[in-house]
Specification:
Elements (H helix, E strand, L loop, with lengths): L4 H8 L5 E4 L4 H10 L6 H12 L2 H6 L1 E6 L1 H4 L9 H7 L3 E5 L4 E3 L7 E3 L5 H10 L4 E8 L10 H20 L3 E8 L7 H21 L8 E2 L16 H15 L6 E4 L6 H13 L7 E5 L1 H11 L6 H19 L6 H5 L1
Parallel strand pairs: 1-2, 1-10, 2-3, 3-6, 6-7, 7-8, 8-9, 9-10
Antiparallel strand pairs: 4-5
The protein binds 2-O-methyl-1,6-di-O-phosphono-D-mannitol (5MM).
The site of 2-O-methyl-1,6-di-O-phosphono-D-mannitol has 16 residues, from helix 12.
InterPro entries: Aldolase_I_AS, Aldolase_TIM, FBA_I
Pathway: Carbohydrate degradation; glycolysis; D-glyceraldehyde 3-phosphate and glycerone phosphate from D-glucose: step 4/4
GO biological process, one term: glycolytic process
Length: 341
Protein backbone atom coordinates (compact mmCIF):
# COMPACT_ATOMS: atom_id res chain seq x y z
CA UNK A 1 0.00 0.00 0.00
CA UNK A 2 1.10 3.55 -0.70
CA UNK A 3 2.77 5.28 2.23
CA UNK A 4 1.62 8.79 1.20
CA UNK A 5 -0.52 10.34 3.91
CA UNK A 6 -3.27 11.36 1.49
CA UNK A 7 -3.44 7.83 0.03
CA UNK A 8 -3.70 6.23 3.49
CA UNK A 9 -6.43 8.73 4.45
CA UNK A 10 -8.32 8.03 1.20
CA UNK A 11 -8.10 4.27 1.80
CA UNK A 12 -9.55 4.72 5.30
CA UNK A 13 -12.84 6.05 3.90
CA UNK A 14 -12.97 4.26 0.52
CA UNK A 15 -15.75 2.07 -0.91
CA UNK A 16 -18.18 2.39 1.98
CA UNK A 17 -15.64 0.89 4.37
CA UNK A 18 -15.19 2.36 7.84
CA UNK A 19 -13.14 2.08 11.00
CA UNK A 20 -13.51 -0.22 13.98
CA UNK A 21 -12.74 1.79 17.13
CA UNK A 22 -11.34 -0.92 19.41
CA UNK A 23 -9.11 1.43 21.39
CA UNK A 24 -10.88 1.26 24.75
CA UNK A 25 -8.41 2.04 27.50
CA UNK A 26 -8.15 -0.55 30.29
CA UNK A 27 -10.70 1.32 32.44
CA UNK A 28 -13.28 1.54 29.65
CA UNK A 29 -12.97 -2.08 28.49
CA UNK A 30 -13.36 -3.19 32.12
CA UNK A 31 -16.68 -1.31 32.27
CA UNK A 32 -17.81 -3.06 29.06
CA UNK A 33 -16.73 -6.49 30.37
CA UNK A 34 -18.45 -5.87 33.72
CA UNK A 35 -21.75 -5.65 31.82
CA UNK A 36 -21.27 -9.14 30.33
CA UNK A 37 -19.81 -10.56 33.55
CA UNK A 38 -16.28 -11.09 32.24
CA UNK A 39 -13.10 -10.37 34.17
CA UNK A 40 -10.89 -7.93 32.26
CA UNK A 41 -7.42 -9.49 31.96
CA UNK A 42 -4.76 -9.15 29.26
CA UNK A 43 -5.86 -12.57 27.92
CA UNK A 44 -9.62 -11.89 27.95
CA UNK A 45 -9.06 -8.54 26.21
CA UNK A 46 -6.87 -10.31 23.65
CA UNK A 47 -9.38 -13.14 23.07
CA UNK A 48 -12.22 -10.67 22.61
CA UNK A 49 -10.38 -8.48 20.13
CA UNK A 50 -8.88 -11.45 18.29
CA UNK A 51 -12.45 -12.69 17.77
CA UNK A 52 -13.30 -9.49 15.85
CA UNK A 53 -10.04 -9.26 13.90
CA UNK A 54 -10.57 -12.85 12.69
CA UNK A 55 -14.11 -12.12 11.43
CA UNK A 56 -12.92 -12.34 7.84
CA UNK A 57 -16.07 -11.17 6.07
CA UNK A 58 -16.32 -8.01 8.17
CA UNK A 59 -12.63 -7.22 8.02
CA UNK A 60 -12.11 -7.78 4.30
CA UNK A 61 -15.34 -6.22 3.01
CA UNK A 62 -16.48 -3.54 5.45
CA UNK A 63 -13.62 -2.46 7.72
CA UNK A 64 -10.81 -0.25 6.36
CA UNK A 65 -8.84 0.07 9.59
CA UNK A 66 -8.79 -0.67 13.31
CA UNK A 67 -7.95 1.79 16.08
CA UNK A 68 -5.92 -0.11 18.66
CA UNK A 69 -4.88 0.55 22.24
CA UNK A 70 -1.21 0.45 23.27
CA UNK A 71 -1.61 -3.01 24.84
CA UNK A 72 -3.30 -4.48 21.75
CA UNK A 73 -0.80 -3.25 19.16
CA UNK A 74 1.89 -5.23 21.05
CA UNK A 75 -0.23 -8.36 21.69
CA UNK A 76 -0.03 -11.76 20.03
CA UNK A 77 -3.00 -13.99 19.24
CA UNK A 78 -3.41 -17.30 21.07
CA UNK A 79 -1.45 -19.03 18.25
CA UNK A 80 1.43 -16.54 18.52
CA UNK A 81 0.58 -14.38 15.48
CA UNK A 82 0.83 -10.65 16.26
CA UNK A 83 -2.68 -9.13 16.22
CA UNK A 84 -1.35 -6.43 13.88
CA UNK A 85 -0.45 -9.13 11.33
CA UNK A 86 -3.95 -10.61 11.53
CA UNK A 87 -5.40 -7.17 10.77
CA UNK A 88 -2.97 -6.50 7.92
CA UNK A 89 -3.69 -9.91 6.34
CA UNK A 90 -7.33 -8.86 5.91
CA UNK A 91 -6.28 -5.71 4.03
CA UNK A 92 -7.28 -3.41 6.91
CA UNK A 93 -4.89 -0.78 8.26
CA UNK A 94 -3.72 -0.84 11.89
CA UNK A 95 -4.06 2.45 13.80
CA UNK A 96 -3.34 3.55 17.35
CA UNK A 97 -4.90 5.74 20.01
CA UNK A 98 -2.15 8.07 21.26
CA UNK A 99 -3.92 10.44 23.65
CA UNK A 100 -3.61 9.87 27.37
CA UNK A 101 -7.23 10.71 28.13
CA UNK A 102 -9.32 13.75 29.04
CA UNK A 103 -8.44 15.30 32.42
CA UNK A 104 -10.13 18.14 34.34
CA UNK A 105 -9.12 21.54 32.92
CA UNK A 106 -7.65 23.55 35.81
CA UNK A 107 -9.75 26.61 36.60
CA UNK A 108 -12.73 25.48 34.50
CA UNK A 109 -14.98 23.10 36.44
CA UNK A 110 -16.83 20.73 34.10
CA UNK A 111 -14.36 21.19 31.23
CA UNK A 112 -11.65 18.71 30.26
CA UNK A 113 -8.38 18.88 28.36
CA UNK A 114 -6.95 15.84 26.60
CA UNK A 115 -3.36 15.08 27.60
CA UNK A 116 -0.58 13.12 25.92
CA UNK A 117 1.66 15.51 23.96
CA UNK A 118 4.80 15.01 26.08
CA UNK A 119 7.01 12.37 24.45
CA UNK A 120 4.52 11.92 21.59
CA UNK A 121 7.18 12.29 18.87
CA UNK A 122 9.09 9.29 20.25
CA UNK A 123 5.94 7.22 20.82
CA UNK A 124 4.82 7.84 17.22
CA UNK A 125 8.19 6.58 15.92
CA UNK A 126 7.69 3.44 17.97
CA UNK A 127 4.08 2.94 16.80
CA UNK A 128 5.13 3.38 13.16
CA UNK A 129 7.63 0.53 13.62
CA UNK A 130 4.86 -1.58 15.17
CA UNK A 131 2.79 -1.09 11.99
CA UNK A 132 0.46 1.85 12.76
CA UNK A 133 -0.27 4.05 9.75
CA UNK A 134 -2.88 6.24 11.41
CA UNK A 135 -3.49 7.53 14.93
CA UNK A 136 -6.36 8.94 16.96
CA UNK A 137 -6.64 11.71 19.55
CA UNK A 138 -9.99 12.43 21.18
CA UNK A 139 -10.89 15.80 22.67
CA UNK A 140 -14.01 15.75 24.86
CA UNK A 141 -16.36 18.75 24.89
CA UNK A 142 -19.26 18.41 27.30
CA UNK A 143 -22.33 20.68 27.18
CA UNK A 144 -23.90 22.20 30.30
CA UNK A 145 -25.03 25.64 29.23
CA UNK A 146 -26.23 26.74 32.70
CA UNK A 147 -22.72 26.14 34.05
CA UNK A 148 -20.92 27.83 31.14
CA UNK A 149 -19.61 24.49 29.82
CA UNK A 150 -17.85 24.34 27.45
CA UNK A 151 -15.75 27.47 27.99
CA UNK A 152 -13.97 29.14 25.08
CA UNK A 153 -10.74 28.22 26.87
CA UNK A 154 -11.62 24.53 26.78
CA UNK A 155 -12.49 24.61 23.08
CA UNK A 156 -9.31 26.59 22.30
CA UNK A 157 -6.97 24.41 24.39
CA UNK A 158 -8.37 21.18 22.98
CA UNK A 159 -8.20 22.44 19.38
CA UNK A 160 -4.60 23.54 19.92
CA UNK A 161 -3.65 20.14 21.37
CA UNK A 162 -5.33 18.35 18.43
CA UNK A 163 -3.33 20.49 15.99
CA UNK A 164 -0.01 19.82 17.75
CA UNK A 165 -0.82 16.09 17.78
CA UNK A 166 -1.77 16.14 14.08
CA UNK A 167 1.44 17.90 13.04
CA UNK A 168 3.56 15.37 14.98
CA UNK A 169 1.69 12.46 13.37
CA UNK A 170 2.31 13.76 9.87
CA UNK A 171 6.01 14.27 10.64
CA UNK A 172 6.10 10.56 11.58
CA UNK A 173 4.31 9.41 8.39
CA UNK A 174 1.10 8.68 10.29
CA UNK A 175 -2.38 9.97 9.35
CA UNK A 176 -3.99 11.79 12.27
CA UNK A 177 -7.65 11.19 13.03
CA UNK A 178 -8.75 14.39 14.75
CA UNK A 179 -11.67 13.70 17.07
CA UNK A 180 -13.31 16.70 18.72
CA UNK A 181 -16.23 14.90 20.38
CA UNK A 182 -19.09 17.14 21.50
CA UNK A 183 -20.83 14.79 23.93
CA UNK A 184 -24.50 13.85 23.55
CA UNK A 185 -24.86 13.11 27.29
CA UNK A 186 -26.40 16.47 28.33
CA UNK A 187 -29.94 17.87 28.45
CA UNK A 188 -29.35 20.32 25.57
CA UNK A 189 -31.45 20.60 22.41
CA UNK A 190 -30.22 19.90 18.89
CA UNK A 191 -29.70 23.63 18.18
CA UNK A 192 -27.27 23.91 21.10
CA UNK A 193 -25.35 20.87 19.84
CA UNK A 194 -25.15 22.61 16.47
CA UNK A 195 -23.79 25.86 17.95
CA UNK A 196 -21.20 24.19 20.21
CA UNK A 197 -20.08 21.85 17.41
CA UNK A 198 -19.76 24.86 15.10
CA UNK A 199 -17.58 26.77 17.57
CA UNK A 200 -15.46 23.64 18.08
CA UNK A 201 -14.92 22.84 14.39
CA UNK A 202 -14.24 26.49 13.51
CA UNK A 203 -11.52 26.66 16.15
CA UNK A 204 -10.16 23.24 15.20
CA UNK A 205 -9.55 24.16 11.56
CA UNK A 206 -8.05 27.54 12.52
CA UNK A 207 -5.53 25.66 14.69
CA UNK A 208 -4.84 22.97 12.08
CA UNK A 209 -4.03 25.66 9.48
CA UNK A 210 -1.82 27.50 11.97
CA UNK A 211 0.06 24.26 12.74
CA UNK A 212 0.68 23.70 8.98
CA UNK A 213 -1.12 20.38 8.99
CA UNK A 214 -1.72 19.00 5.49
CA UNK A 215 -5.49 18.62 5.48
CA UNK A 216 -5.55 15.97 2.71
CA UNK A 217 -3.64 13.69 5.08
CA UNK A 218 -6.14 13.97 7.96
CA UNK A 219 -9.44 12.32 8.86
CA UNK A 220 -12.08 14.12 10.94
CA UNK A 221 -13.91 12.01 13.54
CA UNK A 222 -16.85 14.17 14.60
CA UNK A 223 -20.10 13.76 16.48
CA UNK A 224 -23.35 14.03 14.58
CA UNK A 225 -25.63 16.97 15.42
CA UNK A 226 -28.12 15.51 17.91
CA UNK A 227 -30.25 16.50 20.88
CA UNK A 228 -28.67 15.56 24.24
CA UNK A 229 -29.75 12.24 25.76
CA UNK A 230 -31.16 13.87 28.89
CA UNK A 231 -33.37 16.20 26.81
CA UNK A 232 -35.70 13.25 26.27
CA UNK A 233 -35.87 14.12 22.56
CA UNK A 234 -34.77 11.95 19.68
CA UNK A 235 -34.15 13.80 16.44
CA UNK A 236 -35.24 12.11 13.20
CA UNK A 237 -32.47 10.84 10.89
CA UNK A 238 -33.57 13.46 8.34
CA UNK A 239 -33.10 16.31 10.83
CA UNK A 240 -29.77 14.91 12.05
CA UNK A 241 -28.60 14.62 8.43
CA UNK A 242 -29.72 18.10 7.42
CA UNK A 243 -28.14 19.83 10.44
CA UNK A 244 -24.95 17.76 10.41
CA UNK A 245 -24.29 18.45 6.72
CA UNK A 246 -25.16 22.14 7.09
CA UNK A 247 -22.67 22.36 9.95
CA UNK A 248 -19.91 20.67 7.96
CA UNK A 249 -20.50 22.81 4.88
CA UNK A 250 -20.00 25.86 7.09
CA UNK A 251 -16.91 24.66 8.94
CA UNK A 252 -15.08 21.66 7.39
CA UNK A 253 -12.73 22.22 4.42
CA UNK A 254 -13.44 20.08 1.35
CA UNK A 255 -9.71 19.29 1.23
CA UNK A 256 -9.64 16.87 4.17
CA UNK A 257 -9.15 13.14 3.52
CA UNK A 258 -12.59 12.20 4.82
CA UNK A 259 -15.01 12.05 7.71
CA UNK A 260 -15.58 9.03 9.98
CA UNK A 261 -18.22 9.55 12.67
CA UNK A 262 -18.14 8.40 16.28
CA UNK A 263 -21.36 6.81 17.58
CA UNK A 264 -21.27 8.58 20.94
CA UNK A 265 -23.89 6.53 22.79
CA UNK A 266 -26.48 6.21 20.01
CA UNK A 267 -28.10 2.79 19.74
CA UNK A 268 -26.67 0.48 17.08
CA UNK A 269 -29.52 1.04 14.67
CA UNK A 270 -29.78 4.78 15.33
CA UNK A 271 -26.10 5.24 14.47
CA UNK A 272 -26.65 3.32 11.23
CA UNK A 273 -29.90 5.11 10.30
CA UNK A 274 -28.35 8.55 10.89
CA UNK A 275 -25.23 7.75 8.85
CA UNK A 276 -27.44 6.45 6.06
CA UNK A 277 -29.61 9.59 6.07
CA UNK A 278 -26.48 11.75 5.93
CA UNK A 279 -25.21 9.93 2.84
CA UNK A 280 -28.66 9.73 1.25
CA UNK A 281 -28.79 13.54 0.88
CA UNK A 282 -25.46 13.64 -0.99
CA UNK A 283 -23.40 14.09 -3.03
CA UNK A 284 -21.11 15.76 -0.49
CA UNK A 285 -17.61 17.21 -0.82
CA UNK A 286 -16.23 14.46 1.50
CA UNK A 287 -16.67 10.72 2.00
CA UNK A 288 -18.66 10.19 5.22
CA UNK A 289 -18.31 6.84 6.97
CA UNK A 290 -18.18 5.30 10.45
CA UNK A 291 -15.51 4.97 13.12
CA UNK A 292 -17.76 3.36 15.69
CA UNK A 293 -16.82 1.80 19.00
CA UNK A 294 -19.99 0.99 20.89
CA UNK A 295 -22.32 0.90 17.86
CA UNK A 296 -20.16 -1.80 16.22
CA UNK A 297 -19.22 -3.76 19.31
CA UNK A 298 -22.26 -3.86 21.60
CA UNK A 299 -23.92 -6.76 19.72
CA UNK A 300 -20.80 -8.96 19.30
CA UNK A 301 -19.76 -8.27 22.91
CA UNK A 302 -23.09 -9.53 24.20
CA UNK A 303 -23.07 -12.55 21.88
CA UNK A 304 -19.49 -13.46 22.89
CA UNK A 305 -19.89 -13.09 26.67
CA UNK A 306 -16.41 -14.52 27.19
CA UNK A 307 -17.15 -18.05 25.93
CA UNK A 308 -15.11 -19.72 23.18
CA UNK A 309 -18.27 -21.58 22.15
CA UNK A 310 -19.88 -18.24 21.24
CA UNK A 311 -17.14 -17.01 18.90
CA UNK A 312 -18.99 -17.85 15.68
CA UNK A 313 -22.19 -16.14 16.89
CA UNK A 314 -20.24 -13.09 18.04
CA UNK A 315 -18.44 -12.87 14.70
CA UNK A 316 -21.79 -13.11 12.89
CA UNK A 317 -23.13 -10.23 15.00
CA UNK A 318 -20.04 -8.17 14.17
CA UNK A 319 -20.30 -8.97 10.44
CA UNK A 320 -23.95 -7.88 10.49
CA UNK A 321 -23.31 -4.50 12.13
CA UNK A 322 -20.27 -3.83 9.93
CA UNK A 323 -22.35 -4.72 6.85
CA UNK A 324 -25.23 -2.43 7.90
CA UNK A 325 -22.85 0.47 8.49
CA UNK A 326 -21.10 -0.22 5.18
CA UNK A 327 -24.45 0.14 3.42
CA UNK A 328 -25.16 3.32 5.42
CA UNK A 329 -21.82 4.76 4.33
CA UNK A 330 -23.07 4.32 0.77
CA UNK A 331 -26.58 5.64 1.57
CA UNK A 332 -28.03 2.21 0.69
CA UNK A 333 -29.21 0.93 4.09
CA UNK A 334 -32.87 0.12 4.76
CA UNK A 335 -34.48 -0.72 8.13
CA UNK A 336 -35.93 -3.95 6.70
CA UNK A 337 -32.41 -5.32 6.40
CA UNK A 338 -32.17 -5.34 10.21
CA UNK A 339 -35.34 -7.35 10.63
CA UNK A 340 -34.34 -9.79 7.91
CA UNK A 341 -31.15 -10.52 9.85
C1 LIG B 1 -13.59 2.81 21.79
O1 LIG B 1 -13.62 3.87 22.72
C2 LIG B 1 -12.62 4.87 22.53
C3 LIG B 1 -11.71 4.99 23.69
O2 LIG B 1 -12.31 5.52 24.81
P1 LIG B 1 -11.47 5.67 26.19
O3 LIG B 1 -10.18 6.34 25.88
O4 LIG B 1 -12.36 6.51 27.05
O5 LIG B 1 -11.27 4.32 26.75
C4 LIG B 1 -13.29 6.19 22.11
O6 LIG B 1 -12.39 7.24 21.98
C5 LIG B 1 -13.94 5.93 20.79
O7 LIG B 1 -12.96 5.65 19.82
C6 LIG B 1 -14.77 7.09 20.28
O8 LIG B 1 -15.40 7.80 21.29
C7 LIG B 1 -15.84 6.52 19.38
O9 LIG B 1 -16.50 5.47 20.06
P2 LIG B 1 -18.07 5.44 20.10
O10 LIG B 1 -18.41 4.35 21.08
O11 LIG B 1 -18.51 6.82 20.56
O12 LIG B 1 -18.48 5.15 18.68
Amino acid sequence: MSERLEDIAAAMVADGKGLLAADESSGTIKKRFDVIGIESTADSRRDYREMMFRAKEAMTRYISGVILYDETIRQKAADGTPLVDIIKATGAIPGIKVDAGAKPLAGFPGDTITEGLDGLRERLTDYYKLGARFAKWRAVIDIDVAKGVPSATSIGSNAHALARYAALCQEAGIVPIVEPEVLMDGAHDIGTCYEISKATLTKLYTELYAARVVLEGTILKPNMVLAGKKSGKTSSPEEVAEKTIRLFRETVPAAIGGIAFLSGGQSDEEATANLNAINAIGPHPWKLTFSYGRALQAAPQKAWSGKAANIAAAQAAFVHRAHMNHLAALGKWQPELEQAA
